[in-house]
Amino acid sequence: MGDQELLDALRRTPEQGMAALMEQYAGLVYAVVKRRLPGDLFCPADVELCAADTFSEFYLDLDKYDPGKGSIRSWLCVIARHNAQDLVRRRYRETGVIPLDGELEAAAGVVLESGLEERELRRAVLEAVRGLGEPDREIILRKYYLGERTREIAARLGLTVSNVDTRAHRAVEKLRDKLKEWG
Question: What does pTM read for this prediction?
Answer without folding.
Answer: 0.56
